Amino acid sequence: MATQALLKQLYETPEKDLLHRIRQLKTKLSDQVLILGHHYQREEVFAFADVTGDSLKLSQEAARTDAPYVIFCGVHFMAETADILTGDDQAVILPDPDAGCSMADMADDEQIQRCWRELTEVLDPDAFVTPVTYINSTASLKAFCGEHGGIVCTSSNASKVLAWSWKQREKILFFPDQHLGENTAFAMGLEHDDMAIWDPHQPLGGLSADEIRRARILLWKGFCSVHQLFKVEHVHAMRRKHPDIRILAHPECSREVCQEADFVGSTEAIIRFVRHAEPGSKFAIATELNLVNRLRLQYPEKPIWFLSPTICMCSTMFRTDPQHLCAALESIAANSNEHHQVTVPEPQKSWAKVALERMLALN
Ligand code: 13P
Ligand code: SF4
Prior knowledge:
This protein is an alpha/beta fold. It has helices at residues 3-11, 15-28, 43-46, 55-64, 76-85, 109-119, 125-128, 139-147, 158-168, 178-187, 209-214, 232-241, 255-260, 267-275, 289-298, 322-334, 348-362; strands spanning 33-38, 51-53, 69-73, 91-93, 129-134, 151-153, 171-175, 195-198, 217-220, 246-249, 263-264, 283-286, 304-306. α11 (209-214) links the parallel β8 and β9. The longest helix is centred in the last third of the chain and has 15 residues, at 348-362. The relative contact order is 0.17.
C-alpha cells in the first residue's frame, strides 16, 4: 500500500491496536531493524527505541550497528549522519521526511562557500581557520569541514573538538549555532574580545578586517528557536521561589542563561546529572519539554520544573508519531520500499565521513 494511503488507515486505527501492531512488527523484524530514538521524541515513539541518546551517542551507535535497516526517530540531520556512518548495504529511514531542524537550515552550502571566499580578503582561511560544524547541520556542511581540514562536534564533545581545532590552526569558524560555540569558548576561558559573530546576511559577516584578525573564533549567527525561549528572568524567578534549586541548561541556550546555570550539558549529560543527584534535589531544566516531562516522571523524588513558563517544544522532533513509525516498519516487513530512506550522495558522503570520523576519534 502507498505510504499516504497506509498513513490514512493508521490514523484511523485505535491507538491500542496501533501500538500492538508496532510491537508485533518489531518482534518480527528484530534481527533486521534497529530503532534509534533521540531524547526529544514523544513518549509513544521513544518507548519503541532500541537505543536512546543524545546526538553523539546515537551517531556512535549508527557507526557500530550492522542492522540492515536503521529507523531514526529524530530529525533529518541525525538520519543523514547515520547514513554517512553506516555501510552502503544498510538503509537509514526517517519515518517522517519533514522532520527537519530549523537551526540546521540557518547555514547552507552557498553561504559557507561565500564566507570562506570573503575571508580570503583578510587571511588565507585554509592556512589559519579550522571550520567546525555542529552536528545539527546538513551533510554538505559536514563535507565542507572534511574537505577543509575541519571537524564536526556535538553538544557533548564541543570543548574537546574546539581544543583539537585550535591545535590545527589559530582560528575557528563555528557554525551554525552561535550559542554552543560561544558557551563552549567561554567555558574554555576565552574572553569576549576573542570572539566575533559572523552574520551571513552581511558582507564580510558584518565584521571589519581587524575584528576578523583579532578573533580566535568566528561564531555563525544561528540559533535554536526552542532554546532561545529560555530567558535569564526565568532563572531569577525560579531562584526567588526555590532558593535551593539547581538550574540545568542545554548549551544551545543563550550565554546569559548558561552563565547563570549550575550545570550546562547535552541532553544525555542533563539526564546523568539528575540520575546521580540525591533524592530531594530540586531542578529547573532549560531544554525541550518532552525530555523534561520524562525526567519528571522517572524521578518523582526529585522535584523538576520546566525553566520557562511557556511551552518550548521542538515541533519537528514531534512530527515523528507512532503512525509514521508503524508505516516505516510495515514497509520494511512488506519489502515494498515505500519508506523514507535518507541517502547522502557522493562525494559529499565521503568528505562528511572524514569530518565525522575526526570527531569520533576524539571520544
Ligand atoms: P543533544 O545532542 O544534546 O541531544 O542535542 C541535540 C539537539 O538537537 C538539541 O537541540
Ligand atoms: Fe533543531 Fe532546536 Fe529542534 Fe534541536 S531543538 S532539533 S536544534 S530545532
